[in-house]
Design brief:
The complex is a heterodimer of chains A (about 775) and B (about 150). With about 775 residues, chain A is of the alpha+beta class. Helix content of chain A is about 30%, strand content about 20%. Chain A folds into 3 domains: about 25-230, Aldehyde Oxidoreductase, domain 4 (2-Layer Sandwich), CATH 3.30.365; about 245-325 and about 395-450, Alpha-Beta Complex (Aldehyde Oxidoreductase, domain 3), CATH 3.90.1170; about 335-380 and about 470-770, Aldehyde oxidase/xanthine dehydrogenase, molybdopterin binding domain (Aldehyde Oxidoreductase, domain 4, 2-Layer Sandwich). Chain A contains 21 helices and 26 strands. In chain A, the strands form 7 sheets. Chain A has a 7-stranded mixed sheet. In chain A, a hairpin with a 2-residue loop joins strand 14 (about 385-390) and strand 15 (about 395-400). In chain A, helix 4 (about 100-110) packs parallel to helix 6 (about 140-170), helix 13 (about 405-415) packs across helix 14 and helix 17 packs across helix 18. The model of chain A is unreliable at about 1-60 (pLDDT under 50). Chain B is an alpha+beta fold. Chain B has a 5-stranded mixed sheet, with helices on one face. In chain B, helix 2 packs across helix 5 and helix 3 packs parallel to helix 5 (about 135-145). The radius of gyration of chain B is 15 Å and the shape is globular. Chain B starts with a strand and ends with a helix. The model of chain B has no long low-confidence stretch (mean pLDDT about 95). The chains are: A alpha+beta (about 775), B alpha+beta (about 150). At the A-B interface, helix 1, helix 8, helix 10 and helix 20 of A face helix 1, strand 4, helix 2, helix 3 and helix 4 of B.
């Protein structure tokens, strides 16, 4: 870090300086009948079946979206309105945290309804799932679950505009055509703008789905083109964009909170006299402390209420609090790592048993064991948690950067003892989410304080609060035992995982992982090996566990892709050739043949619509290798590394070019091959891949929380470092596998991170001979 | 004390140890400058003091007596400073939170060094963190604003 501080002073001399709701419902991937319709109370709940509206036959487009809490809505009257002057307003019901979904989903509606993008206004929905359907922006789901419903909304509006024009001209509907923000009389050429038709069109009932005509892919103006800039671009570049802390209300107070240094630690005594003496500090309010397993309830602690943020911060510094440290007060990372390693040394609970792995390991000519470690992580979005709340007449209104506003609303209502109808949650832009802001404890804190004050208040988390009092990503030890026969053929692969589960945030911790975590690369090794087993070994949580972008795929891809490269080196084989060899014959993974007790978790997506196709996995590996010039000769100290991983039902391979010198690694180039089905917004897919490489490099090089006596030792960007512009993956080339619309769009926000890390460490091995088995890399290259 | 912010003079009689970031945000409701770390490590709060980039979380009101401060809201009249235009041409932001600080840093760099080398761009911008990872486009945008290409 010192060199970075020096570089600041030199170079800036003037610078003084809701996923889980679904999970816990134990959703099973129900067979979705391609002919069946999932009926909802309101009648507009999306059908699993998509009827052909034209000669062009549309396939059914079922996704897990249909089974999410409150399902998927496709009622144009909810999502679209048109002003008399033709301005179209489209509701964005998913949160924007940088992936571009706030632009991409309305763009799909606008395209299908033939609206001019320059005449579209986007309005962010408040948290109201009974109205908008599921809003939990998580799991790389927004495009995957909503591309088809958005097309249905757009096609319905276009149809309604055509119906209104036909009625006005007293002709049949086939005599008119909506295009380019107006409807044209096919023979007379007469035109009428959308604004002039709006009132009549939007008064119509939504046409039946079999009455809709969908655009052909050739007719798309925006979908698949990547030419639409993000909607908030002007506001962001001029400082007008509104994030959580940017909401100001009349007579609003400012609050910061001293939270327990150890989760569950309670306030033994508090001396607030010095804090209250700070000019501007007005009040001290205690928030009840919650133990582990309290879901997204506030941690509790002592809040300082002041007339501005600075006074509140100074007041907090002046608080004298004595804590009773509680049951996690001796949690220590060094011991915990040993505990996890000991856990995977013993058999765990089987989650996959194909063939007879134990017998095969015993009878193998040689057994190789590989073990990988990843510490707890904090999300550290650039915007630390912040929220504003107002309380009046028994009702509470919140403004917050939350990924799941309806969860925030219902949780806050429950915490305050109010009905959900008496709480409103408005969604600002999110200054990064990465899973942190699916847990709206900070919004509930603001609501609680607003209620106590009977007024309005802004809660600001500092960076130290964010790093020390958030939801840690799981720490894990992944152990892989490989059996080889006398011909060095891999005959057995046993993967054991010990990692505390996010289940511990919701229910009593039994030391077991949730099916989501098991599904992320533990149960679905795609290698063609006769005997494969996977086991989860006990691991108990001592801090709040919460998923971080890409979740358990990070340690799993790191372990499996590292072990594959280690084996290749052991056998004297090329890393890429051996990877392709292990993937084996092109096939679709079958759960029963793979030795699973039930189905693959598969992101809860229907298996038949989102199969795990090893041909697609192999193809991205070959594409990335080919584009990177795999096999080319590089200077001493440089190397290419490859890794591939399927997550969020997308297939991604990366080839990283690493340059190891003076104890550090530089990445001049990355080739990313992504198969995410139909690519709705290629420009944002590229930006997500660029971002995933930076996020992956930060995670690989720097990130790790260490606990001593239950307290996180890191606190800011000096000891919890981020990749900066002086060392980042300089050029990321993204190669998108082209697919027609009929191939389901799959996740983009998260799946780029997991393959980057092992591709980097495999490249480091090829550059320097150093094998990284423990994250972060830190000073291991010195 | 007196302070000029985006061309408007204000008088201030509060806590002189308060960092400028909290003054512009909490007192003036100029929310473009962002809080990211509070210790000068991330650059999200970058403002200009008499034309030079400064971390708003580190500079106190005491140091700003009689000074002229520019925030992202005052960088240009119409939002079309060459750096802002380049940022839009390159579609740089993802979440956008750090971008005002990045833009203020880049504008300051180009004012003092209109034709920086790539190395000078990388090192000048290294005090500004982007967790989403927009660096590749940030560098392209600074280069575009510098060269017009």
């Amino acid at each position: 870090m010192l060199h970075q501080l020096q570089s600041f002073s030199q170079n800036s001399s003037s610078a003084t300086g809701q996923a889980l709701q679904a999970a816990l419902r134990k959703v099973t991937t129900t067979e979705i009948n391609r002919r069946g319709i999932l009926k909802g109370a309101a009648g507009f709940v999306l059908a699993a079946h998509f009827l052909p509206g034209t000669a062009q036959a549309f396939e059914a487009y079922p996704t897990q979206g249909l089974n999410m809490p409150n399902g998927v809505r496709n009622d144009p009257h909810i999502f679209v309105s048109i002003d008399p002057d033709g301005q179209v307003t489209i509701i964005a019901h998913r949160s924007e945290m940088g992936t571009g979904s706030r632009t991409s989903l309305p763009m799909i509606i606008a395209d299908e309804m033939e609206a001019d993008w320059d005449r579209v206004t986007i309005v962010q929905a408040e948290g109201d799932e009974p109205k908008y359907g599921n809003q939990d922006t998580d799991g790389s789901r927004s495009l995957r679950h909503h591309i088809q419903p958005c097309r249905e909304i757009g096609a319905a509006v276009r149809k309604m505009l055509e119906m209104a024009a036909a009625k006005k001209w007293a002709v049949s509907e086939d005599m008119v055509e909506a295009s380019g923000h107006q409807v044209t009389h096919r023979t007379l050429g007469t035109r009428i703008g959308y604004g002039d038709l709006a009132a009549a069109a939007m008064a119509l009932e939504t046409p039946a789905r079999d009455q809709l005509r969908f655009k052909t892919e050739q007719e798309f103006r925006y979908i698949g083109k990547g030419q639409v800039p993000i909607y908030d671009l002007h506001d962001i570049t001029t400082g007008k964009a509104v994030y959580g802390a940017d909401v100001n209300l009349p007579n609003m107070k400012f609050a910061v909170i001293a939270r327990p240094p150890v989760v569950g630690a309670t306030v033994k005594s508090v001396d607030d006299s010095a804090a209250l003496a700070v000019p501007g500090v007005e009040k001290i309010i205690q928030i009840p402390v919650t133990p582990l397993g309290s879901k997204f309830k506030p941690l509790g602690g002592v809040a300082v209420i002041a007339k501005n943020t600075w006074a509140a911060l100074q007041g907090r510094d002046a608080l004298k609090i004595e804590w009773d440290r509680g049951e996690h007060g001796s949690f220590n990372t060094a011991d915990y790592e040993k505990e996890l390693r000991a856990s995977v040394a013993k058999p765990g609970a089987s989650v996959r048993n194909q063939g007879d792995t134990e017998a095969a390991l015993k009878s193998s000519a040689r057994t190789l064991t590989y073990e990988y470690y990843q510490p707890h992580l904090a999300h550290a979005p650039m915007e630390p948690p912040a929220a504003v709340a107002a309380f009046k007449d028994g009702k509470c209104e919140v403004w917050a950067p939350v990924q799941s506003p309806y969860t925030a609303r219902t949780d806050t209502a429950e915490y305050l003892g109010l009905k959900p109808d008496d709480v409103r949650v408005n969604v600002t832009l999110l200054g990064g989410g990465f899973g942190r802001k699916s847990k709206a404890d900070f919004a509930t804190e603001a609501a609680f304080l607003a209620k106590q004050l009977g007024g309005s208040v802004k809660v600001q988390w500092t960076r130290e609060d964010d790093i020390r009092n958030g939801y840690s990503h799981t720490s894990s030890v992944e152990r892989i035992d490989v059996g080889l026969d006398a011909d060095n053929k891999v005959t057995a692969w046993r993967h054991r995982s010990a990692a505390p589960s996010f289940l511990s945030t919701f229910v009593k911790d039994e030391g077991n992982q949730h099916e989501i975590e098991i599904g992320m690369g533990l149960e679905n090794l795609p290698y063609e090996i006769a005997n494969v087993s996977a086991e989860q070994c006990k691991a108990y949580a001592h801090t709040r566990i919460g998923w971080y972008r890409s979740v358990s795929n990070i340690p799993r891809a790191f372990a499996v892709q590292s072990a594959t490269a280690e084996l290749a080196a052991e056998l004297g084989k090329d890393q890429k050739d051996f990877l392709i060899e292990m993937i084996g014959t092109d096939r679709v993974l079958e759960a029963k043949a793979a030795g699973l007790p039930g189905k693959f978790w598969n992101q809860y997506e229907p298996q038949e619509e989102f199969p795990f196709d090893t041909a697609r996995l192999r193809a991205v590996a070959e594409l990335a290798a080919d584009k990177a010039g795999w096999g080319k000769s590089l200077p001493e100290g440089e190397g290419l590394g490859i890794a591939v991983h399927r997550s969020f039902v997308s297939y991604i391979a990366m080839v990283v070019h690493a340059k190891v010198e003076n104890g550090t690694v530089k990445v001049p180039e990355v080739h990313v091959a992504i198969d995410c089905g139909f690519a709705a917004n290629p420009e944002r897919i590229r930006s997500q891949m660029q971002g995933a490489c930076v996020f992956g490099m930060t995670t690989a090089l720097h990130l790790g929380l260490t606990f001593e006596d239950g307290e996180v030792q890191q606190g800011n960007f000096n000891d919890y470092e981020m990749v900066r512009s002086d060392n980042f993956p300089e050029v990321v080339h993204t190669h998108i596998v082209p697919h027609p619309f009929s191939v389901h769009a799959t996740g983009v926000g998260e799946p780029g991170v997991p393959p980057f890390i092992p591709a980097l460490t495999n490249a480091i091995f090829n550059a320097s001979g150093k094998r990284i088995r423990n994250l972060p890399i830190g000073d291991q290259l010195a | 004390m007196k302070i000029t912010v985006n061309g408007v003079e204000h008088s201030f009689d509060g806590d002189l140890s308060m960092p400028a970031l909290w003054y512009v945000r909490d007192e003036l409701a100029l929310n473009g400058s962002k809080f990211g770390c509070g210790t000068g490590l991330c650059g999200a709060c970058t403002i200009h003091v008499d034309g030079e980039a400064v971390r708003g979380c580190l500079v106190s009101m005491r140091e700003l007596d009689g000074k002229s401060v520019t925030t992202i809201e005052g960088l240009s009249e119409d939002g079309n400073h060459p750096v802002q235009v380049a940022w839009r041409d390159q579609n740089v932001p993802q979440c956008g939170y750090c971008q005002a600080g990045q833009i203020m840093q880049a504008a300051s760099l180009l004012k003092s060094n209109p034709k920086p080398s790539d190395q000078e761009i990388l090192s000048s911008m290294s005090g500004n963190i982007c967790r989403c990872g927009c660096y590749q486009r940030i560098v392209s945008a600074v280069r575009q604003a510098s060269t017009g290409a």
